From TrEMBL:
Binds 1 [4Fe-4S] cluster. Adenine glycosylase active on G-A mispairs. MutY also corrects error-prone DNA synthesis past GO lesions which are due to the oxidatively damaged form of guanine: 7,8-dihydro-8-oxoguanine (8-oxo-dGTP). PROSITE patterns: ENDONUCLEASE_III_1, ENDONUCLEASE_III_2. It comes from Sinorhizobium kostiense. NCBIfam families: mutY. Its EC number is 3.2.2.31. Belongs to the Nth/MutY family. InterPro entries: A/G_AdeGlyc_MutY, DNA_glycosylase, Endonuclease-III-like_CS2, Endouclease-III_FeS-bd_BS, HhH-GPD_domain, HhH_base_excis_C, HhH_motif, MIG/MutY. This is Adenine DNA glycosylase. CDD domains: ENDO3c, NUDIX_DNA_Glycosylase_C-MutY. GO terms for molecular function: hydrolase activity, acting on glycosyl bonds. Keywords: 4Fe-4S, DNA damage, DNA repair, Glycosidase, Hydrolase, Iron, Iron-sulfur, Metal-binding. Its cofactor is [4Fe-4S] cluster. It catalyses: Hydrolyzes free adenine bases from 7,8-dihydro-8-oxoguanine:adenine mismatched double-stranded DNA, leaving an apurinic site.
Amino acid sequence: MTRYTIAASEAAALLLPWYDRHHRDLPWRVSPPMARQGIVADPYHVWLSEVMLQQTTVQAVKAYFDKFLRLWPTVEDLASAETEDVMKAWAGLGYYARARNLKKCAEAVSREHGGRFPDTEERLKALPGIGDYTAAAVAAIAFNRRSAVLDGNVERVISRLYAIEAPLPAAKPRMRQLIAELTPAERPGDFAQAMMDLGATICTPKRPACSLCPFRPKCLALHNADPETFPRKAAKKEKPLRLGAAFVAIDQAEAVYLRKRPETGLLGGMTEVPGTDWTARRDGATTLDAQPFAAAWQPCGAVSHVFTHFELRLSVYRANVIAALPGVEGWWEPIASLKTQALPTVMKKAIAQAIPHAFNQG
DNA sequence: TAACCGTGGAA
DNA sequence: TTTCCAAGGTT
Protein backbone atom coordinates (compact mmCIF):
# COMPACT_ATOMS: atom_id res chain seq x y z
CA MET A 1 0.00 0.00 0.00
CA THR A 2 1.87 3.08 -1.25
CA ARG A 3 0.72 6.39 0.07
CA TYR A 4 0.62 9.64 -1.87
CA THR A 5 3.93 11.50 -1.77
CA ILE A 6 5.30 14.84 -2.92
CA ALA A 7 9.09 15.24 -3.12
CA ALA A 8 10.62 18.16 -1.21
CA SER A 9 12.45 19.21 -4.37
CA GLU A 10 9.17 19.35 -6.27
CA ALA A 11 7.46 21.32 -3.51
CA ALA A 12 10.29 23.85 -3.50
CA ALA A 13 10.21 24.14 -7.28
CA LEU A 14 6.51 24.94 -7.20
CA LEU A 15 6.30 27.11 -4.07
CA LEU A 16 9.48 29.22 -3.98
CA PRO A 17 8.99 30.91 -7.39
CA TRP A 18 5.44 31.72 -6.31
CA TYR A 19 6.78 33.21 -3.06
CA ASP A 20 9.34 35.30 -4.95
CA ARG A 21 6.51 36.94 -6.88
CA HIS A 22 3.68 37.03 -4.34
CA HIS A 23 5.20 37.18 -0.85
CA ARG A 24 3.76 39.67 1.61
CA ASP A 25 6.00 42.54 2.70
CA LEU A 26 5.94 42.55 6.49
CA PRO A 27 7.87 44.75 8.93
CA TRP A 28 9.71 41.83 10.56
CA ARG A 29 10.69 40.20 7.27
CA VAL A 30 13.73 40.23 5.03
CA SER A 31 12.54 40.26 1.41
CA PRO A 32 13.32 37.18 -0.72
CA PRO A 33 15.92 39.03 -2.87
CA MET A 34 17.81 40.02 0.28
CA ALA A 35 17.36 36.54 1.72
CA ARG A 36 18.95 34.94 -1.35
CA GLN A 37 21.99 37.17 -0.84
CA GLY A 38 22.42 35.59 2.57
CA ILE A 39 20.84 38.44 4.53
CA VAL A 40 19.04 36.89 7.51
CA ALA A 41 16.38 38.54 9.61
CA ASP A 42 17.31 39.70 13.13
CA PRO A 43 16.44 36.79 15.48
CA TYR A 44 15.04 39.28 18.00
CA HIS A 45 12.65 40.66 15.37
CA VAL A 46 11.66 37.19 14.22
CA TRP A 47 11.04 35.94 17.77
CA LEU A 48 9.10 39.07 18.80
CA SER A 49 6.87 38.88 15.73
CA GLU A 50 6.28 35.13 16.08
CA VAL A 51 5.18 35.45 19.71
CA MET A 52 2.87 38.34 18.85
CA LEU A 53 1.45 36.39 15.91
CA GLN A 54 0.43 33.40 18.06
CA GLN A 55 -3.35 33.16 17.49
CA THR A 56 -3.30 36.80 16.41
CA THR A 57 -3.79 38.45 13.01
CA VAL A 58 -0.99 40.13 11.06
CA GLN A 59 -3.06 43.32 10.97
CA ALA A 60 -3.36 43.47 14.77
CA VAL A 61 0.34 42.75 15.31
CA LYS A 62 1.90 45.41 13.07
CA ALA A 63 1.34 48.40 15.38
CA TYR A 64 2.43 46.47 18.47
CA PHE A 65 5.58 45.21 16.75
CA ASP A 66 6.57 48.78 15.85
CA LYS A 67 5.82 50.01 19.35
CA PHE A 68 7.90 47.28 21.03
CA LEU A 69 10.91 47.88 18.77
CA ARG A 70 10.66 51.60 19.48
CA LEU A 71 10.52 51.03 23.24
CA TRP A 72 13.02 48.16 23.35
CA PRO A 73 15.29 48.06 20.27
CA THR A 74 17.24 45.00 21.42
CA VAL A 75 16.53 41.88 23.44
CA GLU A 76 18.83 43.25 26.15
CA ASP A 77 16.68 46.37 26.36
CA LEU A 78 13.60 44.20 26.80
CA ALA A 79 15.37 42.07 29.40
CA SER A 80 16.12 45.23 31.39
CA ALA A 81 12.58 46.63 31.10
CA GLU A 82 10.06 46.75 33.93
CA THR A 83 7.52 43.91 33.57
CA GLU A 84 4.77 46.43 34.32
CA ASP A 85 5.81 48.53 31.31
CA VAL A 86 5.77 45.42 29.11
CA MET A 87 2.23 44.60 30.28
CA LYS A 88 1.13 48.18 29.53
CA ALA A 89 2.60 48.01 26.04
CA TRP A 90 0.93 44.61 25.41
CA ALA A 91 -2.51 45.72 26.67
CA GLY A 92 -5.18 45.06 24.03
CA LEU A 93 -3.30 42.31 22.19
CA GLY A 94 -4.71 39.49 24.35
CA TYR A 95 -3.33 36.23 25.75
CA TYR A 96 -1.37 38.11 28.39
CA ALA A 97 0.70 35.09 29.45
CA ARG A 98 2.54 35.76 26.20
CA ALA A 99 3.72 39.13 27.54
CA ARG A 100 4.85 37.67 30.86
CA ASN A 101 6.73 34.89 29.04
CA LEU A 102 8.15 37.39 26.53
CA LYS A 103 9.85 39.22 29.40
CA LYS A 104 11.05 35.97 30.99
CA CYS A 105 12.41 34.78 27.64
CA ALA A 106 14.31 38.04 27.07
CA GLU A 107 15.83 37.69 30.54
CA ALA A 108 16.84 34.07 29.82
CA VAL A 109 18.42 35.02 26.48
CA SER A 110 20.31 37.81 28.19
CA ARG A 111 21.36 35.83 31.25
CA GLU A 112 21.86 32.30 29.91
CA HIS A 113 22.79 32.96 26.29
CA GLY A 114 24.82 36.16 26.45
CA GLY A 115 22.13 38.19 24.72
CA ARG A 116 22.05 36.03 21.59
CA PHE A 117 19.17 33.74 20.72
CA PRO A 118 20.15 30.05 20.51
CA ASP A 119 20.17 28.80 16.90
CA THR A 120 18.71 25.32 17.35
CA GLU A 121 15.09 24.23 17.65
CA GLU A 122 15.76 22.27 20.83
CA ARG A 123 17.37 25.12 22.74
CA LEU A 124 14.83 27.64 21.49
CA LYS A 125 11.98 25.45 22.69
CA ALA A 126 13.50 25.40 26.18
CA LEU A 127 12.79 29.15 26.48
CA PRO A 128 9.57 30.52 28.06
CA GLY A 129 6.69 31.03 25.63
CA ILE A 130 8.41 29.15 22.80
CA GLY A 131 6.69 25.90 21.80
CA ASP A 132 6.90 23.56 18.81
CA TYR A 133 5.79 26.09 16.25
CA THR A 134 7.75 29.13 17.39
CA ALA A 135 10.97 27.16 17.91
CA ALA A 136 10.73 25.73 14.39
CA ALA A 137 9.82 29.11 12.88
CA VAL A 138 12.68 31.04 14.51
CA ALA A 139 15.15 28.27 13.67
CA ALA A 140 14.07 28.27 10.02
CA ILE A 141 13.58 32.00 9.45
CA ALA A 142 16.39 33.48 11.55
CA PHE A 143 18.94 30.66 11.35
CA ASN A 144 18.14 28.92 8.06
CA ARG A 145 17.54 25.57 9.75
CA ARG A 146 15.58 22.89 7.93
CA SER A 147 12.92 22.66 10.63
CA ALA A 148 9.33 21.55 10.10
CA VAL A 149 7.19 24.64 10.64
CA LEU A 150 3.58 23.69 11.35
CA ASP A 151 1.04 26.38 12.17
CA GLY A 152 -2.64 26.76 11.40
CA ASN A 153 -1.93 27.85 7.83
CA VAL A 154 0.36 24.92 7.14
CA GLU A 155 -2.13 22.50 8.70
CA ARG A 156 -4.75 23.72 6.27
CA VAL A 157 -2.46 23.52 3.23
CA ILE A 158 -1.19 20.05 4.18
CA SER A 159 -4.67 18.75 4.99
CA ARG A 160 -5.78 19.73 1.48
CA LEU A 161 -2.65 18.64 -0.39
CA TYR A 162 -2.98 15.14 1.07
CA ALA A 163 -6.78 15.17 1.58
CA ILE A 164 -6.36 14.12 5.21
CA GLU A 165 -9.64 12.74 6.53
CA ALA A 166 -8.60 12.47 10.20
CA PRO A 167 -9.79 15.47 12.19
CA LEU A 168 -7.64 17.97 14.09
CA PRO A 169 -6.08 17.98 16.59
CA ALA A 170 -5.61 14.19 16.37
CA ALA A 171 -4.17 14.50 12.86
CA LYS A 172 -1.44 16.91 13.92
CA PRO A 173 1.40 14.33 14.35
CA ARG A 174 0.68 13.00 10.87
CA MET A 175 0.77 16.55 9.48
CA ARG A 176 4.07 17.22 11.26
CA GLN A 177 5.54 14.15 9.60
CA LEU A 178 4.32 15.28 6.18
CA ILE A 179 5.63 18.85 6.46
CA ALA A 180 8.99 17.48 7.65
CA GLU A 181 9.20 15.39 4.48
CA LEU A 182 8.05 18.29 2.32
CA THR A 183 10.48 20.93 3.65
CA PRO A 184 13.53 21.36 1.37
CA ALA A 185 17.12 21.93 2.50
CA GLU A 186 17.18 24.90 0.13
CA ARG A 187 15.78 28.16 1.59
CA PRO A 188 13.88 26.49 4.45
CA GLY A 189 13.01 29.86 6.03
CA ASP A 190 11.48 31.16 2.84
CA PHE A 191 9.72 27.83 2.35
CA ALA A 192 8.10 28.09 5.77
CA GLN A 193 7.02 31.67 5.20
CA ALA A 194 5.80 30.75 1.73
CA MET A 195 3.59 27.99 3.14
CA MET A 196 2.11 30.47 5.61
CA ASP A 197 1.60 33.15 2.97
CA LEU A 198 -0.06 30.57 0.74
CA GLY A 199 -2.42 29.62 3.55
CA ALA A 200 -3.15 33.25 4.36
CA THR A 201 -3.78 34.49 0.81
CA ILE A 202 -4.63 31.51 -1.47
CA CYS A 203 -5.39 28.37 0.52
CA THR A 204 -7.81 30.28 2.79
CA PRO A 205 -10.36 28.71 5.17
CA LYS A 206 -13.29 29.89 3.04
CA ARG A 207 -13.42 30.11 -0.76
CA PRO A 208 -9.79 29.18 -1.46
CA ALA A 209 -8.38 30.62 -4.70
CA CYS A 210 -7.33 27.25 -6.10
CA SER A 211 -6.98 28.60 -9.64
CA LEU A 212 -4.05 30.73 -8.44
CA CYS A 213 -2.37 28.04 -6.34
CA PRO A 214 1.14 26.83 -7.27
CA PHE A 215 0.31 23.43 -5.74
CA ARG A 216 -2.72 22.99 -7.99
CA PRO A 217 -1.30 20.01 -9.93
CA LYS A 218 -0.43 18.22 -6.68
CA CYS A 219 -3.52 18.86 -4.51
CA LEU A 220 -5.55 15.73 -3.73
CA ALA A 221 -8.42 17.70 -2.21
CA LEU A 222 -8.79 19.80 -5.34
CA HIS A 223 -8.93 16.77 -7.64
CA ASN A 224 -10.83 14.31 -5.47
CA ALA A 225 -12.94 16.33 -3.04
CA ASP A 226 -13.91 19.86 -1.94
CA PRO A 227 -10.83 21.72 -0.64
CA GLU A 228 -12.94 24.06 1.50
CA THR A 229 -14.05 21.16 3.71
CA PHE A 230 -10.46 20.61 4.89
CA PRO A 231 -9.04 20.44 7.48
CA ARG A 232 -11.60 18.23 9.23
CA LYS A 233 -12.06 19.39 12.81
CA ALA A 234 -13.56 18.01 15.99
CA ALA A 235 -16.80 19.70 17.00
CA LYS A 236 -16.36 22.59 19.38
CA LYS A 237 -18.37 23.10 22.51
CA GLU A 238 -20.45 26.15 23.28
CA LYS A 239 -19.43 28.94 25.64
CA PRO A 240 -21.20 29.27 29.00
CA LEU A 241 -22.43 32.65 30.23
CA ARG A 242 -20.87 34.10 33.39
CA LEU A 243 -22.13 37.07 35.35
CA GLY A 244 -20.41 39.65 37.51
CA ALA A 245 -20.33 43.25 38.66
CA ALA A 246 -17.70 45.99 38.31
CA PHE A 247 -17.31 49.13 40.43
CA VAL A 248 -16.05 52.34 38.86
CA ALA A 249 -15.26 54.99 41.49
CA ILE A 250 -14.47 58.56 40.41
CA ASP A 251 -13.07 61.25 42.71
CA GLN A 252 -13.42 65.02 42.30
CA ALA A 253 -10.19 65.23 40.31
CA GLU A 254 -11.63 62.68 37.84
CA ALA A 255 -9.35 59.86 38.89
CA VAL A 256 -10.55 56.24 38.78
CA TYR A 257 -9.84 53.59 41.41
CA LEU A 258 -7.82 50.71 39.91
CA ARG A 259 -6.12 47.61 41.20
CA LYS A 260 -3.88 44.83 39.89
CA ARG A 261 -5.14 41.33 39.13
CA PRO A 262 -3.28 38.22 40.36
CA GLU A 263 -0.21 37.34 38.32
CA THR A 264 -1.61 34.07 36.97
CA GLY A 265 -4.85 32.98 35.36
CA LEU A 266 -7.30 35.02 33.33
CA LEU A 267 -5.93 38.51 32.50
CA GLY A 268 -3.06 37.67 34.84
CA GLY A 269 -0.98 40.65 35.96
CA MET A 270 -3.25 43.12 34.22
CA THR A 271 -5.09 46.11 35.73
CA GLU A 272 -8.80 46.13 36.60
CA VAL A 273 -11.52 48.04 38.35
CA PRO A 274 -12.78 46.27 41.50
CA GLY A 275 -15.55 43.75 41.03
CA THR A 276 -17.17 40.47 41.98
CA ASP A 277 -16.00 37.05 40.95
CA TRP A 278 -17.34 35.97 37.57
CA THR A 279 -19.67 33.04 38.13
CA ALA A 280 -22.61 31.39 36.43
CA ARG A 281 -24.89 32.40 39.32
CA ARG A 282 -27.58 34.99 38.85
CA ASP A 283 -27.48 35.95 42.53
CA GLY A 284 -27.39 39.74 42.89
CA ALA A 285 -27.52 39.65 46.69
CA THR A 286 -23.78 39.36 47.11
CA THR A 287 -22.91 42.06 44.60
CA LEU A 288 -22.19 44.84 47.08
CA ASP A 289 -19.95 42.55 49.12
CA ALA A 290 -17.36 43.16 46.43
CA GLN A 291 -17.43 46.95 46.60
CA PRO A 292 -13.94 48.34 47.30
CA PHE A 293 -15.37 50.76 49.90
CA ALA A 294 -18.78 52.02 50.97
CA ALA A 295 -20.19 54.56 48.54
CA ALA A 296 -23.43 55.53 46.79
CA TRP A 297 -23.07 52.99 43.98
CA GLN A 298 -25.45 53.64 41.09
CA PRO A 299 -26.17 51.02 38.44
CA CYS A 300 -25.23 52.38 35.02
CA GLY A 301 -25.86 49.51 32.66
CA ALA A 302 -23.97 46.41 31.59
CA VAL A 303 -21.21 45.38 29.20
CA SER A 304 -20.69 42.06 27.45
CA HIS A 305 -17.40 40.53 26.51
CA VAL A 306 -16.48 37.22 24.90
CA PHE A 307 -13.42 35.36 26.15
CA THR A 308 -11.96 32.19 24.68
CA HIS A 309 -14.03 29.80 26.74
CA PHE A 310 -16.91 31.83 28.21
CA GLU A 311 -19.05 34.91 27.66
CA LEU A 312 -19.17 37.56 30.38
CA ARG A 313 -21.94 39.99 31.26
CA LEU A 314 -20.77 42.64 33.72
CA SER A 315 -23.19 44.90 35.59
CA VAL A 316 -21.44 48.23 36.00
CA TYR A 317 -21.81 50.47 39.06
CA ARG A 318 -20.55 54.03 39.38
CA ALA A 319 -19.93 56.22 42.41
CA ASN A 320 -18.68 59.79 42.72
CA VAL A 321 -16.59 60.19 45.84
CA ILE A 322 -15.41 63.40 47.45
CA ALA A 323 -11.78 62.51 48.02
CA ALA A 324 -9.47 59.69 47.05
CA LEU A 325 -9.24 58.10 50.48
CA PRO A 326 -9.07 54.29 50.59
CA GLY A 327 -6.26 52.81 48.51
CA VAL A 328 -6.13 49.61 50.54
CA GLU A 329 -5.21 47.44 47.56
CA GLY A 330 -5.29 49.80 44.61
CA TRP A 331 -4.57 53.32 43.43
CA TRP A 332 -6.29 56.31 41.90
CA GLU A 333 -5.46 56.86 38.23
CA PRO A 334 -6.31 60.14 36.44
CA ILE A 335 -8.61 59.66 33.45
CA ALA A 336 -6.03 61.33 31.21
CA SER A 337 -3.54 58.51 31.78
CA LEU A 338 -5.97 55.58 31.63
CA LYS A 339 -5.05 54.83 28.03
CA THR A 340 -1.47 53.98 28.96
CA GLN A 341 -2.43 51.59 31.76
CA ALA A 342 -2.36 47.78 31.47
CA LEU A 343 -6.13 47.64 31.02
CA PRO A 344 -7.55 44.68 29.10
CA THR A 345 -10.40 45.39 26.71
CA VAL A 346 -13.15 44.19 29.04
CA MET A 347 -12.01 46.69 31.68
CA LYS A 348 -11.92 49.53 29.18
CA LYS A 349 -15.50 48.61 28.25
CA ALA A 350 -16.60 48.70 31.89
CA ILE A 351 -14.93 52.07 32.51
CA ALA A 352 -16.35 53.52 29.31
CA GLN A 353 -19.81 52.33 30.36
CA ALA A 354 -19.51 54.29 33.63
CA ILE A 355 -17.59 57.25 32.17
CA PRO A 356 -18.45 57.63 28.47
CA HIS A 357 -15.71 60.21 27.82
CA ALA A 358 -12.97 58.25 29.63
CA PHE A 359 -11.05 57.17 26.52
CA ASN A 360 -11.85 60.12 24.26
CA GLN A 361 -9.11 61.92 22.39
CA GLY A 362 -6.95 64.34 24.38
C1' DT B 1 -5.42 14.92 27.19
C1' DA B 2 -8.10 18.62 27.53
C1' DA B 3 -8.90 22.86 29.61
C1' DC B 4 -7.34 27.32 29.92
C1' DC B 5 -5.99 31.66 27.91
C1' DG B 6 -8.14 37.61 24.41
C1' DT B 7 -9.18 40.21 20.78
C1' DG B 8 -11.14 42.22 16.68
C1' DG B 9 -12.21 41.63 11.87
C1' DA B 10 -14.60 39.19 8.19
C1' DA B 11 -18.47 36.90 6.22
C1' DT C 1 -26.48 38.79 14.56
C1' DT C 2 -23.80 34.88 14.81
C1' DT C 3 -20.02 32.26 13.71
C1' DC C 4 -15.50 31.62 12.70
C1' DC C 5 -10.96 32.05 13.61
C1' DA C 6 -5.51 34.26 13.26
C1' DA C 7 2.05 32.59 12.46
C1' DG C 8 -0.05 28.46 19.87
C1' DG C 9 1.76 27.65 24.64
C1' DT C 10 1.17 26.07 29.29
C1' DT C 11 -0.55 23.15 32.74
